[in-house]
Automatic annotation (TrEMBL):
Keywords: Amino-acid biosynthesis, Aromatic amino acid biosynthesis, Glycosyltransferase, Magnesium, Metal-binding, Transferase, Tryptophan biosynthesis. It holds the Pfam family Glycos_trans_3N. This is Anthranilate phosphoribosyltransferase. Its EC number is 2.4.2.18. Mg(2+) 1 binds at residues 90, 224. It comes from the Bacteria. Catalyzes the transfer of the phosphoribosyl group of 5-phosphorylribose-1-pyrophosphate (PRPP) to anthranilate to yield N-(5'-phosphoribosyl)-anthranilate (PRA). 5-phospho-alpha-D-ribose 1-diphosphate binds at residues 78, 81-82, 86, 88-91, 106-114, 118. The gene is trpD. Its cofactor is Mg(2+). Pathway: Amino-acid biosynthesis; L-tryptophan biosynthesis; L-tryptophan from chorismate: step 2/5. Binds 2 magnesium ions per monomer.
Length: 331
């Protein structure tokens, strides 16, 4: 009979070596499910450290199914779980940024706590998820965009997912998505739903060797830059975004958060199509603000105003809509 490994006591912060071994044991099924659940709950109640977050991500990265990406590729995604049920901002941002000429390896999943995740909305707009997964490396090279469906790239999470469901609360694995991109991108714009965690999360990202990135959070607990008020941004590496960002910094107006409230996948997909067809309003401005930040992180634009102008041009001249159509047709 195989002896199961023992996890360290999570009552106090773990040293790097202990954290690395613990998450290796968890992901390689060397620990009982009951021990995993107790460990994750205790970490969450104590509050994870940047070292623990980084080592969990490092362990997940070591076990993923990789995808080759062009130089300078970026990911734009959030941790989710902000409870605001907005339209799919980062999904639209991925299309707009890619239309500006920056390759985007969009890591995402189906909805967990929202009504429509990135995969759900893209599927509703016509992207075949099976085809997009099988052709991700090719579409990233040929079109400059790919959707990296998390379930296809993280087999080690298959055992963890049901444990997380049984726990029924946030754990360290809620933070892993943006830190374990299968394309190993070194530039990222990451939204986190907890402003108080942004600095800690940025420390973890820095430990993982990012080239240039920013962790952003709307002050109302939004996992993206907000057009309803100020947001915070913590820059890492070569990135130098302002630490406090308002819509006015990109030359954009403010909108109440309710103006970008989303619905089911069909509703969000229709809104995304209208956005790409040039519809003005709160959704467009939210996308422009976040695309502007992504373009600054990618080194494409020198500041937020220039980024918003470039993003608006990619929508208004039809490049973003045309890219979506080519992506849907890509085989």
């Amino acid at each position: 009979m195989t002896t199961l490994a023992l996890l360290p006591d999570p009552a106090t912060p773990l040293a790097r070596e202990s954290a690395a071994q613990a998450f290796a044991d968890i992901l390689d099924a060397r620990v009982s499910e009951e021990a995993i659940a107790a460990f994750l709950i205790a970490l969450a109640e104590r509050g994870e450290t940047s070292v623990e977050i980084a080592e969990a991500a490092r362990a997940l990265r070591a076990r993923l199914v990789p995808v080759a990406a062009p130089a300078g590729a970026i990911d734009v995604c959030g941790t989710g779980g902000d409870g605001h049920h907005t339209l799919n901002v980062s999904t639209a941002v991925a299309l707009v940024v890619a239309a500006c000429g920056v390759p985007v390896a969009k890591h995402g999943n189906r909805a967990a706590s929202s009504k429509a995740g990135a995969a759900d909305t893209l599927e509703a707009i016509g992207l075949d998820m099976a085809v997009a997964g099988a052709t991700a490396e090719g579409s990233l090279a040929d079109l400059g965009i790919a959707f990296l469906f998390a379930a296809n790239h993280h087999p080690a999470m298959a055992r963890i997912t049901p444990i997380r469901r049984r726990i029924g609360r946030r754990t360290i694995f809620n933070l892993m998505g943006p830190l374990a991109n299968p394309a190993h991108v070194t530039h990222q714009l990451i939204g986190i739903a907890r402003p108080d965690y942004a600095g800690l999360y940025a420390e973890a990202l820095a430990q993982l060797g990012t080239g240039g990135a920013a962790v952003i959070s709307g002050e109302e607990g939004l996992d993206e830059l907000s057009t309803a008020g100020p947001s915070i941004a913590v820059s890492i590496g070569s990135t130098n975004l302002p630490p406090r960002i308002t819509p006015e910094d990109a030359g954009l107006p403010r909108h109440p958060l309710a103006a970008i409230r989303g619905g089911d996948p069909a509703y969000n997909a229709a809104a995304l199509r209208r956005l790409l067809d040039g519809e003005a309003g709160a959704y467009r401005d939210a996308v422009l603000l976040n695309a502007a930040a992504a373009l600054v992180v990618a080194g494409h634009s020198p500041h937020l105003t220039a980024g918003a102008t470039a993003a608006a041009a990619a929508i208004d001249d039809g490049r973003a809509a045309a890219l979506l159509d080519r992506w849907i047709a890509y085989r």
